[in-house]
């Protein structure tokens, strides 16, 4: 027999569980960490320069920089200059994937993408599912919304989750859900980070990254959950 107290305690359990999920200071919960080392990535940089002219890896910190007057990554490429770590060891075509890294952007770096989820619907005008950019110190999702203002000169932790199956993407900054929205299609994706010049780029662009981790969600078919929030949010914190 179901008594009122039983129902009540079931309800409070659900509330408790939901609250734990809401707080979500550990976005990696439910994910497994995959191996990651230099055999899972390479560096894209201006085609006419040695990698050491635009990239260093010292004491576990990747430092990537580029100038607005630099050449693109290939002679034939029409794209703007970049120095990026491309994580080609984890191309993915399904599932729920997560990138984690701790980033630092010095004052002055602006008009630049610092992290991207590559891949989108081939008919779309853009080739990415998510870009985190910096404009005058604001961290933005593409050009808007601003997801965290005044990001310069401090280390911040970035967790980006891409649920390909549900076409959903989210970004946590320092453990706080700061952006979520729908995916942009595409059959093939991977993560990148560094500096990729955009419109209104500063003369010099730099980002530093450490503690890079790649995770994949363990999905048990009978426990597949659906996302409760599908709308874009942008939170200041
Ligand atoms: C990177 O990790 C993989 C998988 O754990 C391992 O097989 C490989 O030897 C490692 N490579 C380097 C350069 O450490
Ligand atoms: C790297 O770390 C070592 C030990 O903590 C330190 O002595 C050294 O100055 C660091 N080098 C750089 C370039 O930060
Ligand atoms: C990932 O895709 C790229 C093409 O963009 C390819 O060159 C690379 O070999 C792929 N990596 C793996 C591990 O399949
Ligand atoms: C892209 O557009 C073409 C032509 O309109 C269409 O045939 C194709 O199905 C579209 N592809 C996707 C993935 O929507
Ligand atoms: C940075 O974000 C703040 C808060 O949204 C906004 O007022 C300001 O205009 C933004 N600056 C730039 C350069 O976008
Ligand atoms: C670039 O700068 C121009 C002129 O200052 C401004 O109108 C435009 O909104 C800026 N675009 C971006 C993407 O910041």
Automatic annotation (TrEMBL):
Pfam families for this protein: Alginate_lyase2
Residues in the signal sequence: 1-23
Keywords on record: Signal
Domain of life: Eukaryota
Domain called Alginate lyase: residue spans: 39-215
Protein name stated in the entry: Alginate lyase 2 domain-containing protein
Species the sequence originates in: Manihot esculenta
Lineage, uppermost ranks: Eukaryota, Viridiplantae, Streptophyta, Embryophyta, Tracheophyta
